[in-house]
Known about the structure:
single chain
Amino acid sequence: MKYIFFILILLNFDSNMYGQHTVGIKLNAGLSNVLVRYNNGQTLHHKFYPQASYQSGIYYSTSLSRKLKLGSEIIFIQINGKEFIGIPFTDINGKPIDGFSFDTLWRHFSYVGLPIYVGYNYKKLNVNLGLQTNLRLGGNISEKGGANNNGDTLTWKNKYTDLSGFDKFDFGLSAGFILNLNKNFALEGNYYYGINNILKNNPKFLKDKIRQLTVGLRVKCFTVNRKTKEKKIRSTKKDANQKEDIL
């Protein structure tokens, strides 16, 4: 994560020569999921259901050139996911026998995210691609399941708040677009593709990865044009010098 901050500082320093700096707020809503991969060869009836999700926070953008923009954000992210697992019972030889188990898991993770991206301008549209690091603030996992064997059914229901088995950090790629509606408002779409396995100290055949797709609105709060400020400063100094020469 320290390398991301270092890159951001360097890019921001380089971009100061071009001018415009914009700060605003954003609010996006959409869908997310936590995809779990089981690679142990066990036969599973496995389904994922995207759940409502959102992100909101502050954004900053600056011009790298006439066509390129650098953007960064500090955002609160809510990730939700639903997973259904059905497992048929088998004997020691792997042959199906009467009975099965089923389990539904709801995962809820809250993060503070730091996306950094570069966008290309085409008229009112900006298409961007970047990296994103998330720090988990909290969350929980709810479980509801059961097992049926020889006509007898056993059910259970649990809620887990101990997330020590999950990595505090998540890292991935982000891609999106920004469509300027007018001087102050823009429509935004964003897709986040988590790369790392957020499970830790677990068997290699288990992998949890985050996905999120959102759309929303960006509201510009203020813009500073560095070139304009520099021209005003130079003009003021020039006027002052001229007055001194007259005196």
